[in-house]
Amino acid sequence: xxxxxxxxxxxxxxxxxxxxxxxxxxxxxxxxxxxxxxxxxxxxxxxxxxxxxxxxxxxxxxxxxxxxxxxxxxxxxxxxxxxxxxxxxxxxxxxxxxxxxxxxxxxxxxxxxxxxxxxxxxxxxxxxxxxxxxxxxxxxxxxxxxxxxxxxxxxxxxxxxxxxxxxxxxxxxxxxxxxxxxxxxxxxxxxxxxxxxxxxxxxxxxxxxxxxxxxxxxxxxxxxxxxxxxxxxxxxxxxxxxxxxxxxxxxxxxxxxxxxxxxxxxxxxxxxxxxxxxxxxxxxxxxxxxxxxxxxxxxxxxxxxxxxxxxxxxxxxxxxxxxxxxxxxxxxxxxxxxxxxxxxxxxxxxxxxxxxxxxxxxxxxxxxxxxxxxxxxxxxxxxxxxxxxxxxxxxxxxxxxxxxxx
Length: 406
Ligand SMILES: Nc1ncnc2c1ncn2[C@@H]1O[C@H](COP(=O)(O)OP(=O)(O)OP(=O)(O)O)[C@@H](O)[C@H]1O
What we know:
The protein has eight helices and 21 strands. By secondary structure, it is an alpha+beta fold. A six-stranded mixed β-sheet has the order 7-8-9-3-10-11, sandwiched between helices. A five-stranded antiparallel β-sheet has the order 2-1-4-5-6, with helices on one face. It has a five-stranded mixed β-barrel with strand order 12-13-14-21-15.
């Protein structure tokens, strides 16, 4: 048994076959995953992918239509069985803080202890300790409307941890805050959560937040869990183009496999042959989508020497944006647009540059496009490109020399 000052071990969370429908819409469409006690899971996905529905189902605010939720082995949701939120030993932090407007900071945080059988002085001690921990000791007597957004979210954080729940649920807690505050509060969430023994499930549509916080990332799309893996694995081997796009892309090219290799695959894109890492098996002639990570790109001097460089695109700078640690460029290379091409120095609009591509960071996925007859040795005409303006995970990380591509 845990004592009031010693947090209980975090919940072991098990979700199997979770389905939730709203009319014709399957907000959750057969979701399975587990989170080990004390682990930090981030559910990442675009708007409408089912993140809130999933976290609300864990909380017991929503009832599943099918499937089960177990918390530390106990059946919390299954069929007609539904453990109410207050019996799940969890706390939730919401995007809009959800503080009681008529209670002071002290009252709001203390409210979370109302179900604990603590004497007044121990409860008070705990509340003050939690407020000190989030840097709000001086504001205990204020009301929520007398606090900034960041301070209100700190109160919500203190309220969530003060009762030492076994599960902490976060529903986009940083989305209403400005960038600088978001980063500081993210660090506080990471440290506070890990100091407590609680298991955490955190939802966001922000990939940089997900990578910074997670032990494990689950990527959701249209109510399905597409990939569940550590951040490094999700970044290095995104299971699908959707996951790759959602976790940082500088540009996309379409082409055809010329020569599959154990390490790198040669892909013809228009009149270029580029090397890339294939995700999943590919055969000569396969149509592929080539996704270029921002870290793949590096501007090199435009070559006029005798040596013909490989794995490069030549193009003109069409946009340059100052990013503090350097500059991100958008480059038009023939019909291709490559964004987030980082360099320590600015290249003015119109300058002709050469972009070196690191094959390790160029990911090739087979597509369903029909093969051309005799493909494998003929150039493909597929050169469609999309530009994705998503702030890349690794903007600024392109300073490592690209590998030799010969
Ligand atoms: N109460 C509801 N009634 C009808 N449809 C709903 C309801 N709640 C959610 N949905 C639908 O279920 C799907 C998943 O919604 P959900 O809010 O879980 O997604 P989300 O990934 O959290 O999105 P966001 O990031 O925009 O909050 C969406 O298509 C949404 O329109």
